[in-house]
Design brief:
54% of the residues lie in helices and 7% in strands. It has a two-stranded antiparallel sheet. It has a two-stranded antiparallel sheet with strand order 2-3.
Amino acid sequence: MANKHQNFGFGGRPHFRNESVPPSPTGSVVASPLPGMMQINATDAMDVLPPAAREQVEAMKLRAEELGALYRENFASEQAARISIVKHEQRITELQKPRSMGGYGLDDDAQQVVAERRKLDRARADLNRLLAAQEPRNAESQRIGGLLRNIEAAIAARPAGTIGAMVEIDVPAVKDVLGAVEAKRRRLRELESDLQRTRCAPWPSSAVKAWMREQIEQLAETGRPDATAAVEHNEPIGFPAQSRQVEIHNVPGGGAIGFSEQPNSIGLIAWLFKDALIAALDREIDEAADDGEALTIEQRREQEVEIQRDMLATAREEVMLVDRAEKQGQHVAHRADIHPLALLQIAWIVAPPPAAREGDGEAGLTRRIGP
């Protein structure tokens, strides 16, 4: 029997309360956990959803279970059809096998062979019918399963201390609902392209030059020779070295690695010709720069937030239009990658503080009744 608590990460988990102190007949003792004992409250993941969104998720889970049951039933029929095909093929082979090999030696026009071929054709037709009927159900099952997993991931990734609240969306009436749905989806593709362009935009040359200077300064420090030992102890000038990983060939088994100490030549060049190296890299950066399309890190953040806000708003409108089309009898399914918050029409808000329960913190205390 399936465990209901494992369905897509959701499931009704019971609430537990450890009543360590039984109620007093006189009412003078408060029943509550012992001092220092943690009260267990294993909550359901969907407790953070408002009732309407929760009902929607439950309906999706029920549909997924129905599709699973249909798949299992169809699979049994499919296997029976495949077995029937194999039996008819084996029977035809047996009928046409030469008598010297234990068969009947019948030709293609023999009545028994013709009858078996008819049965074989019917079995193949039954199998094709079953496969054709199962294909759209499989696609719907995968789509709903993906939606439920996305919802579970959205709940797990929500900001700490938040719960879901319904969002009211007002979509104007349109004559062509399906056309409006496609328009929203086209707009989402445009916004996705805008988001990718924002993330792939070049960086301002001034910022790149600043980062380059920090890099050269660090390299110069790693390549700086050490003359202290020469002055104090009459030893050779020390030049920094670097440990590098090398691959060793021509060894049994292959894949051997080793380490070697090599002079830090790039660091030494950065220390010796720092100004010249910076000037040369400035010229390279100027040549590659595209400051007209460049974005700073602040601009990227602002544009990404604005684009993602527009994408969520557009997705909410798409969901409303899809629901409207369904009510009008025009079948159109929600996209498998639709935003979970748009699908459920919710937003994360700060959860209100839990209400204080009567008697909390009074374990084992006796209340005085009367004067």
